[in-house]
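Before going further, learn to read the protein records used in this course. Taken together, the tokens spell out the fold as the letters spell out the chain. A record is reproduced here so that you can trace the correspondence yourselves:

***
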Amino acid sequence: MALGNLIYQHILLFYVLFKYWFRSFINLFTGGPPLKDLSSETVLITGAASGLGKGLAQRLARLGCTLVLWDVDEGNNARVAEELNNETNSKRIHAMKCDLTKKDDIYKCAKKVISRVYRIRFFFP
């Protein structure tokens, strides 16, 4: 009886492993389940003038998000926002100069965000 139970557990284990392996294999070719639609979301990204922040902004802009870009480098931040607005044919990307080392500057920028887009759904520091 114990040997039969052991064999049954092994067969069940292999079945479960094969099932998940097969699903993963199929998802490689089909792209997997659909992602959440982000076109109606508002996202705040800090450090968006260059590097990872810029890359994240580019990706989210292509997905249709409304973006608020904060960076201490006002010139590059405005340039990135303008490029993304032109690329996506929209006016949903807003650039703001914000120095995150100054508490008063953060509050001032937050008030601007509330007046422009009302509410932020996602925040990427």
About this structure: The domain at 42-124 is CATH 3.40.50.720 (Rossmann fold).
